[in-house]
Amino acid sequence: MLRRYTTIKDIAKALGISVATVSRALRDAYDVSPQTRQLVLETAIKMNYKPNFNATGLVKSSTHKLGVIIPAITNYYFSTVITGIQEVAQKNGYNIFLYITNDSSDLEKDIVKDLSFSSLDGILACVSSPSDACMHFQDIIDDGLPVVFFDRVPEQINVSRVMQDDYDGAYQAVEHLIKKGYTKIAHITGPKGVFLTENRLRGYRDALIKYNLPIRNEWIIYSGFSQKAGEADAELLFEKSENLPDALFAVNDRKAIGAMISLKRRNIKIGKEVGVIGFTNDPMCEIIFPTLSTVAEPALEIGMKSCELLLKHIRKSNFVPVEVVLSGELIERESTNRN
């Protein structure tokens, strides 16, 4: 149901204080004075403010239900993350409810606005929206609902987050290509403005700079995260007859596999003529031919750690947000073998 009654923004405006202060006062946070808390509570009563979820300090009951918002469920990475979340949730007596955005920022906003907060203790979210367009999450955080982000995280929202080291993983991938003898390396990446996209792009650029290799804007292509997007990106890169890259670093394995399909159509020998490396370590990497080099992400650990942090926030309203960054592992296979 849509959330439109008196909100904490209305209370903040009436008192001339920040939304964050009102939120902390309602949650009985340690850094709000007793006088301010009392004033906020009295104003909330006068304005008929009705918290419709159990995360504020006004309501202590728990549903033992967690919402998980993810872009997709059909790929290996997210299914593994969910396995990690489920394992921790079940051990602690919680059930999880999945909400799938299909990589649509508009659908993500609708899901967040329409969530029934009275039925959830907290939210785990991997965002589909650009980092600077996540105020729909900030609204529910300000209202006191615990949120932890994982994998794709908004840069400017100050809550706990768990992610792999996107920068270092990308740097490792490009450095691996360079050490294998590739010198004209393109990057098929995700949508602009996504924190993950920008971090992996930085790793790509910095590796090229270190080894004095050219960074060509026409060799950096932004698009979606799907296999079809990877296929289309490779078509754009190789539709010309000159100035072609001799290697591709893809933002994830699905895009790398899509690029390999395109290269095979052009009878380009993967590895020998054009190296390809991905990011995730999807099981498909070992099934396709040639097998795909990649950077393995700690998906199970990301899911488990995210859920552990969310439960800490639920149990302790003044738990200080933390950022957890987990390392990936370079896995060399046939797609980067020039021999």
Structure commentary:
- The protein is of the alpha/beta class and 339 residues long.
- It has three domains: 8-46, no CATH class; 65-164 and 299-326, Rossmann fold, CATH 3.40.50; 166-297 and 330-336, Rossmann fold, CATH 3.40.50.2300.
- 40% of the residues lie in helices and 14% in strands.
- It is built from eleven helices and twelve strands.
- The chain has helices at 8-15, 19-26, 34-46, 76-91, 105-114, 135-142, 166-179, 195-210, 227-238, 253-265, 299-315, and strands at 65-70, 95-100, 122-125, 147-150, 161-164, 185-189, 220-222, 247-250, 275-277, 294-296, 323-326, 329-331.
- It has a six-stranded parallel β-sheet, with helices on both faces. Strands 7-6-8-9 form a four-stranded parallel β-sheet, sandwiched between helices. Strands 10-12 form a two-stranded antiparallel sheet.
- Strand 8 (247-250), helix 10 and strand 9 form a beta-alpha-beta unit.
- It is elongated, with a radius of gyration of 23 Å.
- The chain starts with 7 loop residues before the first helix and ends in an 8-residue tail after the last strand.
- Mean pLDDT is 89; it is low at 52-60.
- GO terms for molecular function: DNA-binding transcription factor activity; transcription cis-regulatory region binding.
- Residues 6-60 form the HTH lacI-type domain.
- Keywords: DNA-binding, Transcription, Transcription regulation.
- It holds the Pfam family Peripla_BP_3.
